[in-house]
Amino acid sequence: MSKQYDHDYFQRWYRDAPRKDAAIGGAARLARKVELAVATAEYHLERPIRSVLDIGCGEGAWRAPLLKLRPKLQYLGFDSSQYAIARFGVRRNLHFARFGDFEHLRPCAPVDLLVCSDVLHYLDTRELDRGLPALAELCGGVAFLETFAREDGIDGDTEGFKRRPASFYRQRFQAQGFAALGSQLWLAPQLRDGVAALELG
User: Which range of residues forms the domain containing residue 130?
Assistant: First the structure.
């Protein structure tokens, strides 16, 4: 039976925990990620962010903390969970798509902040390679590509986790023109020439 990203899945991994903030998707932890990503994007763009594309958005958990920081930004999410899209799609601007669909899908102009969090390490290599070029094309500022590798101590959902070395992802991101900024953040290809050498990882 294939893995189901249904209500029970999100309840287990993103809401149920002895302490709410200890959950993988706990509010405090998520808020710190969002603040880091927004601050980094705005540092490099030298202005407030206006647009966010969230690929593999799940229930759209990033939307609320993003709008808390920047109430006027445009948020657009895509996910392969039929449950998440049916329940939250209209309210949170979420749409159905698998990662591999981005081989051809270009739903918007390049965004200030592109989010692809906790997605890539569950994908087969073929699907990952099909969709990855879109991330570089759709990112006009900074990408938060939260991805875990074989070298990491994995805490959470290990079903379907691909135990690849960090070099596997690093090489692919760099081949698309992304520059490493550290802390899961990557600079869009078109901004690389404007940064100091020691700002890059």
Answer: 7-191
Per the structure, the count of domains in the chain is 1
Here the tokens at position 151 are 């070298």
State the Cα–Cα distance between residues 7 and 155, nearest whole angstrom.
Answer: 20
Q: Hey, what are 192's tokens?
A: 């690389």
pTM of the model: 0.89
Give the C-alpha separation, 99 to 129, whole Å: 10
Q: Can you spell out the DSSP letters for 145-170?
A: -----TTS---S--TT-----HHHHH
**In this predicted model, what pLDDT tens digit does every residue of 7-21 receive, in sequence order?**
666 676 566 554 444
Nearest to 57 by CA among 16, 19, 111, 130: 111
CATH number of the domain at 171, please. 3.40.50.150
